[in-house]
Write a structure and sequence with these properties.
263 residues; two-stranded parallel ribbon; 13% helix; R13L1/DRL21-like LRR repeat region domain-containing protein
């Protein structure tokens, strides 16, 4: 913690994280209220985090309150073949999400308070696209929260993505107007969209047949759109309905799984 106190790259090299193969969980934390203007401007913060390269045995990574302009390049490397969980919190000066789609074992990804990010595009999936790429091949749960400037989550047809994703949470993205196509995410079971007031409707293609539960909270435009479409379908029923919350569940013979709004 308090990585802003690291004075030189020599200190980073002495930490020798890359060769400490016994470290499977790593948290890199800066002070929350740190004035990053000077640090981000002179490049020192970025150099520090670049030299904190962990061992390839890493399984769980958390980066908190990092104020640099870009996250470290090593975070995207597929050589982290055991990395299963990433949490990135309050990276307030980053304008792009890191490219994480090539991490072969990533199962859980949480992105919170990237307040400068306006667009999620192909860069999020892969840095360079090829037709045979499958982005995020093992990802099961994706949470995107408090991206206050996010306007578009763009569709990409250059790569396949999320073949194992079962839960998607999009919360507190008040400027969001479009999200990527969901109908091709064939394992998706639960979708939660919360406080995305400008999102007018679901993307073209609607919901995948694998879906079991769909939660809409504080999204008046989306609620109105889905009410008119899903309620005409015999596949769905409303299990809960208030002025700000809708929970739809698929009509199936097998046990229905309830969905709760993520805090």
């Amino acid at each position: 913690s308090r990585l802003e106190n690291v004075q030189s790259l020599e200190e980073c090299k002495k930490a020798n994280l890359h060769h400490k193969r016994g470290i499977t969980k790593l948290e890199l934390r800066w002070t929350d209220d740190l004035e990053w203007e000077n640090i981000a401007g002179d490049g020192h913060g970025k150099e520090v985090v670049e030299h904190l390269l962990p061992s390839i045995m890493l399984e769980d990574l958390r980066i908190l309150c990092y104020g640099g302009l870009k996250l470290p390049s090593w975070i995207s490397k597929p050589s982290f073949y055991k990395l299963k969980s990433i949490t990135l919190f309050k990276c307030e000066n980053c304008r792009l999400l890191p490219s994480l789609g090539r991490l072969p074992s990533l199962e859980f990804l949480t992105l919170i308070e990237f307040i400068q990010v306006k667009i999620i595009d192909m860069h999020f999936y892969v840095e360079t696209a090829h037709s045979d790429h499958v982005a995020f091949p093992k990802l099961q749960k994706l949470e995107i929260k408090s991206l206050l400037s996010l306007e578009e989550w763009r569709e990409t047809r250059k790569v396949r993505y999320f073949p194992c994703l079962t839960k998607l949470v999009i919360k507190d993205c008040p400027q969001l107007t479009t999200i990527c196509r969901l109908s091709g995410i064939h394992c998706l079971e639960c979708l939660e969209i919360n406080n995305c007031g400008k999102l007018p409707s679901l993307p073209e293609g609607g919901l995948p047949s694998s879906m079991k539960a769909f939660v809409i909270a504080d999204c008046p435009m989306l609620s109105l759109s889905c009410s008119s479409s899903l309620e005409k379908s015999q596949d769905w029923h409303k299990s809960e309905h208030t002025s700000s919350l809708l929970i739809y569940q698929r009509n199936e013979g097998k046990r229905r799984e309830s969905a709760s709004v993520t805090n």
